[in-house]
Amino acid sequence: MGGGRCRRAAACRVGNRGDRRLMTEALHVIAEEAPDRADVIALIEASDAYSLERYPPEGHFGTDIAGLKSPDVTFLVARRGGAAEGCGAVKWFADGTAELKRIFVSDAARGLGLGRRIMARLETLAAERGVTTLYLETGPLNTEAVTMYRRLGYAECGPFADYAANPYSLFMTRKLTDEPSNEG
């Protein structure tokens, strides 16, 4: 029965990027989880390795597992077939703002739009808590991430929270509105 639609997304062969993005929506489940599971720790270690390939140790600001388990942090994991392939967190500040942290997608899931989906879920959590301003810190050499953040409406800003200006950080912010961020 050629030419028909796939009955199971996992069985579909995809030829273009749009089809791959549709598949990630069907295959990835994004949910709140504890960050201290073995496969999530491996994902965070991959994120650290990615950062340390680009920046010296003094330019690495990734939150450790203990920090991600803090009561003022909500941590999400994206899984496909049970495997952890992406993550992200929100750190809630007492002033009603929040910081997005540890946004990372594994090599196996890059190009599927998973980073945008994780961002959208984190922004939804923030909006549900009444947060109107989100911040994030990333490195200027993380060009794919910076491009995604800009497309989602984030703009450069100065240091926030406990960060100090440094050559390894790019600080960004976005005001949340009733409209979701542009996911394309």
From TrEMBL:
It holds the Pfam family Acetyltransf_1. CDD domains: NAT_SF. It comes from the Bacteria. SUPFAM superfamilies: Acyl-CoA N-acyltransferases (Nat). This is GNAT family N-acetyltransferase. Keywords: Acyltransferase, Transferase. InterPro entries: Acyl_CoA_acyltransferase (IPR016181), Bact_Acetyltransf (IPR050832), GNAT_dom (IPR000182). GO terms for molecular function: acyltransferase activity, transferring groups other than amino-acyl groups. PROSITE patterns: GNAT. PANTHER family: AMINOALKYLPHOSPHONATE N-ACETYLTRANSFERASE-RELATED-RELATED, BLL8307 PROTEIN. Residues 27-177 form the N-acetyltransferase domain.
